[in-house]
Specification:
Helix 6 crosses helix 9, helix 7 packs parallel to helix 9 and helix 8 packs antiparallel against helix 9. The termini are close together. It contains nine helices and two strands, in the order ααβααααβααα. Strands 1-2 form a two-stranded antiparallel sheet. The protein is mainly alpha-helical and 199 residues long. The protein has one domain: Rhomboid-like fold.
Length: 199
């Protein structure tokens, strides 16, 4: 079994994507909890390792939450239903990997929140796996999706502003998180191909 279906032959239920989305919504509705979940550099360096995972579930504004969930939920559901095992490993491991990249690559960043890095990675991984799995799809579609992701990341890196979400003054976008999400997706895709080739 390749992780794409359950033992009944049906697509897997995307419970992890739904759970993460629900927790993100609850964290936004309960700001006090968000304070314990937020990526906080000093807290992480003093042993609060859970923030490596939970920081991605905290959002600063309704717009921030809406646009992240608008990408993460449908793509995560799709990925987890069709490629359940790679999807779940990715969702569990990409969060701390992205956080470690932020710790090492942006030492001035004290706080970070949002699903955008993971959502970007989920979309890239879905595009790569679907492109490989369904060569009968229109030849331009999945490469086009990947190209749009790269263009969006480049524009936001240059403009220092998100294309869709709106933040309060003093909150800045972190393009490095999106690049880290893309890198995690490529690494996951290479690993899936390697595992598949060994079988």
């Amino acid at each position: 079994m390749d992780g794409a279906t359950t033992v009944t032959g049906r697509p897997a239920f995307p419970w992890l994507t739904i759970l993460l989305t629900a927790v993100a919504g609850l964290a936004f509705a309960w700001p006090a909890a968000g304070g314990w979940l937020l990526y906080e550099r000093d807290g992480i360096l003093t042993g609060q390792a859970w923030r490596l995972w939970t920081g991605h579930l905290v959002h600063y504004t309704p717009s921030h939450l809406f646009w992240n969930v608008a990408v993460f939920l449908p793509t995560g559901v799709w990925l987890e239903r069709v490629f359940s095992r790679p999807a779940r490993w990715f969702l569990l491991l990409a969060a701390p990997a992205i956080s470690v990249v932020l710790l090492l690559g942006d030492t001035a960043l004290q706080h970070y929140g949002g699903l955008s890095g993971i959502a970007t990675g989920v979309l890239v991984l879905l595009a790569l796996l679907q492109w490989r799995r369904n060569p009968r799809d229109p030849a331009w579609f999945w490469p086009g999706v990947l190209a749009l992701i790269v263009v969006k990341a480049a524009v936001e890196s240059t403009a220092h502003q998100p294309l869709f979400a709106r933040f309060d003054p003093g909150v800045r976008p972190v393009p490095l998180a999106h690049l880290a999400g893309i890198g995690c997706a490529i690494a996951a895709f290479v690993f899936v191909r390697w595992r598949t080739g060994r079988k």
